[in-house]
What we know:
The chain is an alpha/beta fold. It is built from 13 helices and 16 strands.
Amino acid sequence: MKKLMASASVAVLFLHACSNANTDSSNEASNGEGADEKLTIMTSIFPLEDWTKKIGGDYVDVTNVVPVGADAHSYEPTPNEMISVAEADAFIYNGAGIEAFADSIVSAVENQDVKVLEASGAVDLIEDNHDHDHGDGGDHSQSDDVHDHGDEDGHDDDEHAHSHDHGEGDAGIAHIDGLSDHYHSGDDVHLTVHEEEESGHDHWHWYTLAPDANPEDEEAWEVVPDNGTDTYEGMAEEDGQQIQAKLFGDDHDVIAQSEPVTISIDDHDDDHGHDHGHSHGDYDPHVWLDPVLSIEMAEEIKTLLVELMPEQEAYFEDNFEALKTEFEELDQSFQDLAERAEKDTFIVSHAGYGYWENRYGINQIGIAGISPTSEPSQSQLVKTIEQAEELGLEYVLFEPNITPSVAQTVQSHLGAEARFIHPLEALTEEDVEAGADYFSLMHDNIETLRTALSAN
């Protein structure tokens, strides 16, 4: 009911706004005014605002929906901001799930005279591979052992059925740690298992059961391939999926087993504060951090402005070419950094920098996930700290708008120094006072990386 009332309120506000806008336009036309008006553009994140101002120059008024100091992942526009979008000539947003509010705005203006541009739709996004790297520090010998047994996966299924037939009450007890509920579709699932009484064995296997399958049907349980460790990593795809772990001895007998845990998924359309990016697939939305791909996004903005004001095409084109040159110079600065760096990995509070790895080979260890609100499990934290220690990382990079306590915990364990890296989604008050723009902040980031990667 609250959602329906909110939707109705927004609809009324939009109708009122459009009515006022039409009246104002009629008045201006009757007075002979408005011929040299600027385009009114609303953007969702700071890079898009900055680029639109640079390309549009004297012919645009640009306002960003996400205010200074806010987080685009979780921000919800006010009714007045929604009205501003309805009155604008265009709304430009990043897409790919970075803005929790974008879908509702796009739906609300689809019948209005507002051009909508999803800037990231012009580029090839990279996959969100956060947490995949954490397994690199694990014991690969256990995983290799699975392959060395040849048809062992088949034996495991037989052993699973065999052990149930004979009752596994004689086996030891194992416990699964980790969250089993409050997931959204596409969330990462991380579980660990341990024996109640240590047996000295370490050959674990994990099994999954589909929600509609019978737990007593031995053939319905599927072994998780390529995993002989005490850690399960998967994706929350089906509500009610069950997961179980078993420990095998040298003779393929079951030494210990856990009770199954059930994965609970709750996808609320009106949930706020969750990582809405999952609903857009497994892609990293932070594409504006790649200078090369940013050129393609900026060109889409130029094309939109030309469509809205074709008489200024040459002006917009010249401004875009100047902007493109700055992107190319920034790209070269990143290349120079990567060539000079003695280290190739940095640890950061939020895994939003995958495009630098993809473009320049500068690897990130993200403490939180693709969204800053996606906090790691205890086992992930341990792996993160261990990996950072192995690599000898001396700095933990924090973002200016968000300082998660879990990142401070990692910094404390490592005894590392803190440095700031800017995600550029939104400015801080200090950025505004300093007159910062996209390029000044990106060059500041390069200087931070120069310190973290020993690239002096």
